[in-house]
Amino acid sequence: MPQLYQPQGISPSGRPYTILIAEPSKFQSKQLQQILESEGYKIIGIAEDGKELLNMYKENRQVDLIIMEVCMPVIDGYALFFDLKDMSPILPKIFFISEENSPGVIKSLLENGAVDYYVKPIKREKILEKVKAAIEKVNPTFK
């Protein structure tokens, strides 16, 4: 019997993986949303700044992945990452897609528990590959 195509955004149980996006550029957030929804992911919120994302996360902690930009108004992605880390004993999976490409920033975020870091521009195949890997990653435990 032929294998039916299963979009990568659908979990083995049949539930769509849920994602929050924090991206100040409406164009970029729309682009990400379209790429991810085309594979079955469910975007449960799009924030234009870090404070807005923090509020969305407080209302929905069962999110499978948070995708965020480092360069954001109000609370930037770097500070937001550490705020989220302080809020919960288990850090949500956080994947950065950013224009920020300083090795020190990237290294610090990855060493502190970010699941991945991708430097823009957004390329569909690469984003889908990295999002799938990020969701499948086991959350690191901190002592």
Q: Could you characterize what this model shows?
A:
The protein starts with 17 loop residues before the first strand and ends in a 7-residue tail after the last helix. About 40% of the residues lie in helices and about 15% in strands. It is of the alpha/beta class and about 140 residues long. The chain has five helices and five strands. The chain has a single domain, classed as Rossmann fold. The chain has a five-stranded parallel sheet, sandwiched between helices.
Which helices and strands appear, and what pairs or packs with what?
Layout (H helix, E strand, L loop, with lengths): L17 E5 L3 H12 L4 E6 L2 H10 L5 E4 L8 H11 L6 E5 L4 H9 L4 E4 L4 H13 L7
Parallel strand pairs: 1-2, 1-3, 3-4, 4-5
* Largest sheet descriptor: 5 strands, parallel
Helix count from the secondary structure assignment: 5
Portion in helices: 25-40%
- Uncertain residue ranges: none
What's this, in brief?
The protein contains five helices and five strands.
Summary tags:
5-stranded parallel sheet, alpha/beta, Rossmann fold, single chain
